[in-house]
Amino acid sequence: MNYETQIQESETHVFKVVFPNTTNHHNTMFGGKVMEMMDEVAFMTATRFARKSFVTVSCDRIDFKKPIPADTLVELIGKVKYVGNTSVKVNVEIFVEEMYRDVREKAVSGDFTLVAIDENKKPSRIFEN
């Protein structure tokens, strides 16, 4: 499989419902919960891309453009953005949809860097030469 096909096939889509137990006193999703979901999707995307074990080493500029209210649907989309020797940068976007109206908006985006690790938890090359 070529590199571009591998990137396309690793694109990950996850849908969730925003239930009240994930929201704050403003009835919007906790920022920490949003970041947790994004990290999870970044991990899934990196793993699907390289079929290696990964750990998150950083996240870059997470932009909260719109609040995510309770009683909405969210779609998280992970896409490989950059591949290094041992690391992968994954962009994760979150779109919020109203449940009973055809309204969909981008709410959050951010980049996560993950490093492939071996059985000794040391950095491992993503592709062997």
TrEMBL record:
The keyword DNA-binding appears for this protein: no
Keyword line: Hydrolase
Gene Ontology biological process terms from the UniProt entry: acyl-CoA metabolic process; fatty acid catabolic process
Keyword Hydrolase: yes
Transmembrane regions listed in the UniProt entry: none
Matches recorded under Pfam families: 4HBT
Domain of life of the native organism: Bacteria
GO cellular component annotations of the record: cytosol
PROSITE patterns xref list: HOTDOG_ACOT
Annotated GO MF terms: long-chain fatty acyl-CoA hydrolase activity
Domain (HotDog ACOT-type): residue spans on this chain: 8-120
Family: Belongs to the acyl coenzyme A hydrolase family.
Name this polypeptide is given: Acyl-CoA hydrolase
